[in-house]
User: Fold this.
Amino acid sequence: MNTRYIDLINQTFYFPQDEFKLEDKNLQFHDIDLMQLVEDYGTPLKFTYLPQISNNINRAKGWFAKALKKHKYKGKYHYCYCTKSSHFKHVLNEALKNDIHIETSSAFDIDIVQKLKSEGKLTDKTYVICNGFKRDKYISNIANLINNGHKNCIPIIDNYEEIDLLSQSIKKKFDIGVRIASEEEPKFEFYTSRLGIGYKNILPFYRSQIRDNKKVKLKMLHFFINTGIRDNAYYWNELSKCLKVYTSLKHICPTLDSLNIGGGFPIKNSLAFDYDYEYMVDEIINQVKLFCEQEEVPVPNIFTEFGSFTVGESGGAIYEVLYQKQQNDREKWNMINSSFITTLPDTWAINKRFIMLPINRWYDSYERVLLGGLTCDSDDYYNSEQHMNAIYLPKYNKEKPLYLGFFNIGAYQETIGGFGGLQHCLIPSPKHILIDRDENGEIKTELFSEQQKSEDLLKILGYNE
Assistant:
């Protein structure tokens, strides 16, 4: 009778997979010995596997290069990284090894740009796409960047006042983009995105504020939908509406030469994950070319802004099961030595699910459980997987420690969780490990941050001077 955890996985999924395999009965992630990581650093811990950032960037660039060649597409492709997904220096350092550009969301992002420029990691020719609602500090930082000679900074106009605000601070002629306020899927609580300018208003806006303005040059139309790039009727319909605006605008605006199709490539969130990236890229390029040919306008340069796709699959967390509580006849709670609210806030805030697998004990029998965090908050739990409505793990045995890994958590968790700050119920942030490879391909690890200490939190709270 197949009652072992490994039997469950083999019966349910294709396993092993590219990044996951077993070695000496323990789980490995990109050939990283996770049990060795536990022995070296203890738990709870988070880690970032830096090479996966470069890997995903180059996968996407390869898909677009192939599609452009296949369709004899005359425009260029530019890959941008959305800094809001993870602002950490080690992330930007890795991403910028790959000849990419960046997208910013707020004033302090521009300070990061200036720092990277001073270190020679960005140049004046690097595209800096400035999204978001802009007020005083963001406006002045963008203006400083452009006034000091950054040639490819493109503020994306989000509302009707921003052109005037930028013009007052920028001393020279500058490029701009305009963001389309896309219509959201019917299940959303609102119909039209709060970001950007509505489809029907973009041409009148161009005629009234941009066409005769000698200080600004419209270069880019920016398109993004909240649910991301997916092969469904909603996405293709919104893309078609975007292309109609682009071609109509191109007929009256010769400087317009770029289309930003935003981001939203999904990342792997289940062992059953199935997404044909290459097909989607190919079809997007095909649709853009066909639409432009039909409307008799040149094809645009294509920009993408990938945040989660760039960095998400580089991150992981490892916890230990401390204890099992049998709360009634059916429910068993495995208590982890950390908190989901503080370390994986997306699981609590938007019910997001990540790949969750045990690190060890794959050859033991399994049971259905719920996972509970250490806080005294009833919402601090994790109870289902992306591919099924339950969690199955090797049976709890107080004599045999069980370690759990959560994978592809590299986007947003640190910033949403308030890295380095106060945590719910004062549960400390875990230590964070950076994992890289040397010139010979050997794994090397580095401690990025220690687990928070009591004095760190007391100082923030005002108890320690």
Observations:
- The first strand starts at residue 20 and ends at 23.
